[in-house]
Amino acid sequence: MTEAKDDLIRTVALACLSYEYETIDQEIADRAWELAIDHAARQGLTPIEAQTQLWEGNWSPRRH
Length: 64
Hints:
By secondary structure, this protein is an all-alpha fold. The chain has helices at residues 3-21, 26-41, 47-56. It is 70% helix and 0% strand. Helix 1 crosses helix 3 (47-56).
C-alpha cells in the first residue's frame, strides 16, 4: 500500500470509530470525528470523499 492510501484508510477508520462510539462515549465519538475531518482536510478532502475514493479505488490525493 502507498502512503496516500494509508491516509484514506486512517480518515475512514476515524469516521467509523466516531459512528460506532456515538452510543458508547459521545466525547470519544466527537473527538474521532474532529480528527477525521482534520486528517481528511490535509488531503484536500472531506471524510465522505475519502471514503468514496477508498471504496472506488480512485484515490489520487490532492496535496496543497
